[in-house]
Design a protein that fits this description.
This protein has five helices and eight strands; from the N terminus they run ββαααβββαβαββ. The protein is of the alpha+beta class. The model has no long low-confidence stretch (mean pLDDT about 90).
Length: about 170
């Protein structure tokens, strides 16, 4: 797997695993469904997704999914995705996506997780990180800005969804 965990003393990122399944399902709310998941999760699909993430970790694949944990708590508090080599990005850039469960929002944890994910991406050779957020997703945009990302452009996906792009050199 290469990485067992990354921590700043407050937040720890560790590769998403099956032990995170129940906490993820319990933590999902309407905001995560809308902004991150694209639809409500179910146990079978989420288990399949996590197994796929574990395989990608083992193979050093292009998608590395982390569980976000708070030091001193066993609970999963959210997820952080680091995607290398997406169609719209050069090979040395990564796309980050994150979500926290409701009870953990508003504490600066997502910002800390983004900093850790950037540190990880740089250690894997990335030189720039991208965060895409729908313009109405003010909390995600605030995390991007607090994490040192700057707005660069707006784009529209094939399905008509608009995204603001924020980048940070690593």
């Amino acid at each position: 797997m290469g990485v067992s965990s990354l921590s700043d003393g407050v937040v720890t990122l560790s590769p998403l695993c099956l032990d995170d399944l129940d906490a993820h399902l319990a933590g999902e709310d309407d905001q995560l469904v809308r902004w991150l998941n694209g639809g409500p999760s179910n146990r079978a699909d989420t288990e399949e997704y996590i197994r796929g993430c574990m395989e990608l970790w083992a193979a050093k694949g292009p998608h590395r999914a982390f569980g976000i944990h708070v030091v001193g708590h066993q609970d999963l508090v959210g997820t952080m995705d680091v995607r290398f080599g997406t169609e719209e990005l050069p090979d040395d850039q990564v796309n980050l996506a994150y979500g926290l469960y409701p009870r953990w929002r508003g504490r600066g944890l997502a910002t800390r997780a983004v900093h850790l994910a950037c540190r990880f991406a740089a250690s894997e050779g990335a030189t720039r990180a991208l965060i895409r957020a729908e313009p109405e997703n003010a909390p995600s945009i605030a995390v991007a800005r607090r994490s040192g990302f700057r707005y660069v452009r707006r784009s529209q996906d094939e399905d008509g969804t608009w995204y603001d792009h924020y980048v940070r050199d690593l």
